[in-house]
Amino acid sequence: VLFLPRAYLNGGMMFSNLVLLAIALLSFWCFILLVNVRLKVHASFGDMGGKIYGRWFRTLINSSLVISQIGFSSAYIVFVSENLQAFVLAVTKCRTFIDIKYMILMQMVVFLPLSLYRNINNIQKLALIADLFIVLGLVYLYYYDILTLVNNHGIADIIQFNKDDWTLFIGTAIFTFEGIGLIIPIQSGMKDPQKFPRVLGVVMIAVTVVFISMGALS
Length: 218
What we know:
Keywords: Membrane, Transmembrane, Transmembrane helix. With about 220 residues, the chain is an all-alpha fold. The protein contains 9 helices and no strands.
């Protein structure tokens, strides 16, 4: 969600809203298809494909998952590294500069042990802490976005469609709804997996509202 303010600048207000909504609907449809298959074929991502279409499809699914997760994880790691670098510069009043590659290495000390967990239930407490910080970040952004609008007596001039950089927004919009890799683990960890589609629908609506409002306000 922290990517969205800059992304909206690249896409333009109207274009960004429409594309983000379209990607949300497409993602939700794909999520529901995956969940419905999982309710009938109790297996992992790759094994579901293997049981339905054979070994080649299992390999295709697993390869796609690996490539997508590498891309998403790399983007997050670089994003966090850049923010950590900016934080250190701000705290030390630009007296201490730590290169991005060292910031990435420091994150590996935390991420590599966590990546060894194969059951999402084992990291629920850590996930709750992460969710708390995300909520605090959202509150902070909403507060200052609204405060800026009030102080400026309204919104500034906006572009409905940015013809120069709109393609950059497409990638960000797809990246925003990248949680398909967690659909099966979350469903498997539920007490009543049959209720997951309804829960997923509510969550997708809430997340889409947050994403669009955050991008539009910022």
